[in-house]
Amino acid sequence: MSDTGALAYRVFSSSIARLISNGARRIMITSSGPGEGKSTIVAKLGENLARSDRLRIAIVDADAFRPTLHKFFQLDHRRGLGDLLGQISKADLNGDSSKQFGIGDWIELIRAQSRTGRLQVSEGSEEFSIIFNKGRVSSVPDRQGQRDFALRAQREGSRPLGGGPSGLGPIEAELDSALQVELDKRLRRMLALAKPQYRFLPAPEAPAPEAGNRPTTASGATGIDRFILGMVGDELNQPYLSRQIPGYLKNTSMANLKVLTCGDLTTDSFYFAEPFVTVIDRLAKCFDAVLIDAPPVAFDTSTSLLAPAIDGVLLVVKADGFDVGVIQRAKDQLLRSGANLLGVALNQVDLPREAAFPYYQGSSREPA
After folding, report:
1. Cα distance between residue 87 and residue 95, in whole Å
2. Over the stretch 97-141, which tens digit does the pLDDT of each residue have?
3. What pLDDT is stored for residue 233 in this prediction?
4. Does the keyword Metal-binding apply (predicted)?
5. pLDDT, tens digit, 9 for 90 and up, residues 7-61
6. Which helix (H) or strand (E) element contains residue 45?
7. Long-range contacts of 299-303 (CB under 8 A, 24+ apart)
8. Going from the N-terminus, what domains does the chain have, and what CATH number goes with each?
9. Distance CA 35, CA 319 (A)
């Protein structure tokens, strides 16, 4: 790489480092079409952030059409993102592996699988329930509420819970302060259990979500679900996910840079977006930043589907590449989806050093 190119990446990574320090820790990098160099930018950006800014970086190859990052880092692409998503979406909630689950694992896996039913948490005489409606927490009832739920489930029979007025009931748009205090007390008592026993009692399945449904995120959740995600989410024990997800990461020559290769990833893997969000959220808790190499916007709807669940999106545009109309449509598609578009990165621009970085001419200092 030329000196000008190396300097360009350092300046670019410094700008991204500032975004990360301001809270944009999950960054998706995409393009309007193939061949615009987004994967190279993801790899080089990850290296520069890990080296110059000494950040802990996880790179995720989510481009099922043209997985590239394993070649850049000379890694085996097998056992990657697609395999991990499959494991999460198919985890047996009442099988032997569930004995490894902590309360956080249960909530994340039920959310990832969009399940409806009741999670029973007990120890001795203490017993709690968390009611889920299509993966979202709709209530944490007291004992009377648990009895009401059981009776209602029995009355409903084969009718999907949450499908009508006699289902799980409306999820409150906001929790009043009294309810927040009561809910917090129940959750704290539940978290204080030394050796809790868990059992998930599924309710009749609600209709499967259609392709294009948005994943549930902290910003998109409401009421009790938002409270649990925002107030106690970091305190929820996740021994199973804590062990499983890092096992899929691959090492690079830099100790603070890890790669989650594409693996057995297909376009159908994102039909349900929740497992992907679970993985990215978990990585964001372990690393300073997660960089996601996403499919081109014009070729795959999954990028627009997942973008609203990410902190920000960078759109890579190759100089003298696609027609401006194609680029504009890609940008508009991202914005319509609710994505936070951080900016557009113009790639492969052939400019002399003097024109590219006039500010730094005459100075031996590296960009801050």
Report:
1. 13
2. 788 888 888 888 998 888 999 999 999 988 999 999 888 888 887
3. 61
4. no
5. 777 888 888 999 999 989 999 999 988 888 899 999 999 999 999 878 999 999 9
6. helix 38-52
7. 299/33, 299/34, 299/65, 300/64, 300/65, 300/267, 301/211, 301/212, 302/62, 302/267, 302/270, 302/273, 303/28, 303/30, 303/334
8. 3-86+241-360 (3.40.50.300), 103-237 (no CATH)
9. 11
